[in-house]
Design brief:
alpha+beta; 434 Repressor (Amino-terminal Domain); 6 helices; Umud Fragment, subunit A
């Protein structure tokens, strides 16, 4: 539902509803509506549903991955239907909303208090959250690169395996890092994609906070 602003603005023009009219109907300021429709801020789900209903769209229904596993036993552990039937009887693409967290606040309490969310078509196997890449350790001169500013989706339900991109914390450090897990000579390492940074030994004591499953560049 990333393009909800375009849909709402088109419907507002069709119904001749101004930003001021919409603001009055949902009980907010015209300035707040303007920020949302320009994509400068994202409303909470409750407010977004108010907007959708006011312009004639069905409200979004929050669907969690575990509900899909329980309700769709024919699907595998990581395979889910791409669409669902809404209250209006129509088929809608299925999206999930995950919180955007700070690197120093990755626990469930921080996620529940988050005020920024980003949607994805990925159904997390565990807890899902977004992080914004900081620094250039994962910026490669050639090939696969995840530059600073990119949003990465982390899934705590995936297992760490060579080749995967991990969010991890070494036993001798309090810093949380974003690195690729590799295996060389029977030993595993956390490797930056930027060759100017050193790799670190990956041991049984290394804490894996999640596996990166998706990346998104926002402008």
């Amino acid at each position: 539902m990333d393009n909800w602003t375009d849909l709402v603005k088109t419907r507002m023009r069709e119904l001749k509803i101004t930003q001021e009219n919409l603001a009055e109907r949902i009980g907010v300021t015209q300035g707040a509506v303007g920020h949302w429709l320009r994509g400068e801020r994202e409303p909470k789900l409750r407010v977004l549903n108010q907007i959708l209903v006011e312009v004639g769209f069905p409200p979004l229904r929050m669907v969690y991955p575990h509900q899909l596993r329980e309700d769709n036993s024919a699907y595998g552990e990581s395979a889910f239907p791409a669409t669902v039937t809404g209250a209006d009887g129509q088929r809608h693409e299925l999206y999930f909303r995950y919180p955007i967290l700070a690197w120093d606040s990755l626990d469930e309490a921080a996620a529940s208090a988050a005020d920024q969310y980003q949607s994805s078509d990925h159904a997390a196997l565990g807890r899902g959250f977004w992080l914004r890449v900081e620094g250039d350790a994962m910026t490669a001169p050639v090939g696969w690169s995840v530059p600073q500013g990119m949003l990465i989706l982390v899934d705590t339900g995936h297992s760490a395996a060579p080749g995967k991109l991990l969010i991890a914390r070494s036993p001798d450090s309090t810093a949380t890092v974003f690195r690729q897990l590799i295996e060389e000579g029977g030993q595993r390492y956390l490797k930056p994609l930027n060759p100017t940074y050193p790799k670190a030994l990956f041991t049984e004591q290394t804490q894996v906070l999640g596996v990166v499953v998706q990346a998104l560049m926002k402008f």
